[in-house]
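Re: duplicated header lines in exported structure tokens

Our pipeline writes sequence and tokens for each protein into one text file. With two proteins the header for the second block appears twice in some exports. Here is an export where it did not happen, for reference. First protein block:
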Amino acid sequence: MLIDYKAALALKCPICGELELHQFTIFNFSGQESFEIECRCGFTKMLIEHNDYKQYWLQFACIICEVEHVVHYSVQDFWSAEVKEIFCLENEIQLGHLGPASEIEDLLAKEDYLDLVFDEIGFENYFSSPEIMLSALNLLHDIAQKNGLSCQCGNGDIEIDMFSGKIELFCDKCDGLTTINAETEDDLSFLKKIKKIEMLEGVVSALEKKN
């Protein structure tokens, strides 16, 4: 069987929510056992590894359950012309596609992935303003990428939890917690002006405008 060693991946980023088409060939693995696929935001959305080109496995962070998944393929299946659907292994929600670029491009043209994910997990119903929430998460990611998110206790690894109209930043070292409103355009405009967030050690507070 003749194998065309070209493929493309379409997978939603768990950090910024963007869906991109990434094309690659077997030459991306030349001299190495793994190949990283990065989102435009800088997050490594998938790590593809191989065992002497006999088996491939995909490792990725799931946008749905926030658990890292690993999926295995034989060399024939991985490079085959068949489009393979990528699912959340916990609840079988579709996350993206792997296969020939032309076929995946056709799928992306027909499908609205944002609505698909929102409908599957109740995103539209849960958040007061889903678009503002995603934009706020993207802004927070940009701040964190520039080392602008930290706690006075010295911890730079801050956890993020989402609620209906707000985001909570939590420091598991000192139990400090900061709430950020993410419900209106004003909330988003305020967050856009923030360059650095330093949480108060052991204090529960809210990120608010200063007069």
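Second protein block, exported in the same file:
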Amino acid sequence: MAKAKLLLIEDDVTLVKMYQRKFESDDFEVEVAYDGLEGLDKAVNGKPDLVLLDIMLPKLDGLALFKKMRSQPSTFSTPVILLTNFGQEDAVFECFKLGAVDYLVKADVTPQQVVTKVENFLSEQKK
């Protein structure tokens, strides 16, 4: 069975390394982008099975990136789970209106909980 391909768009290098290590140890293929423009390019060209998206990003914030993804046929239906901090409720609400499948507050979840959330979502998609 092919590995699920994730795109992690997050500007915190420590978090990226932690999540990347955890997802790869659980047999995911992980692509990483550290800013919104790089993330959009990798979402369009890399065709991930799922995107984990931070809201606060340099160059292009997560909400603007998500709007651009939804405006393009190649990424219109790509599932997105938001990774946020507190205080970003308005952006989260906007992303849900655009079709975000879930959101996680970074301070409240462990890497294992994020992996479990992604695995559960992807297994539901296959049904």
